[in-house]
Amino acid sequence: MAITVSAVALFGLVLLLLLHGRYLGPGSAFTASGFGFFLASTGAAEPITQVLTALTGALPGL
Fold it and tell me: What is the pLDDT of residues 9-59, one digit of tens each?
């Protein structure tokens, strides 16, 4: 659960920076956020979580 919250915070921060730097418009940010919410309710949510867990587990070994 902590990994999921960290990933959400990271992606939220990136989205905020893109908005602040005007690389991304409000409509695009809304679309990106909506895509994330809809993706989380599909069958792809579990494999994405497993990949993020594997990556965070592999980082200390690098």
Answer: 777 888 888 888 888 888 888 888 878 887 888 888 888 888 888 988 888
* Start-end of H helices in 1-62: 2-20, 26-40, 45-58
End-to-end CA distance of the chain: 23
| Residue in the structure block whose two tokens are 């921060």 | 13
- In angstroms, the CA 16 to CA 5 distance is 16
pTM, two decimals, is 0.55
| Among 44, 18, 48, 46, CA closest to 31 | 18
Single out the residue of 35, 27, 36 nearest to residue 7, CA to CA.
Answer: 36
Q: Which residues contact 51 (CB under 8 A, 6 or more apart)?
A: none
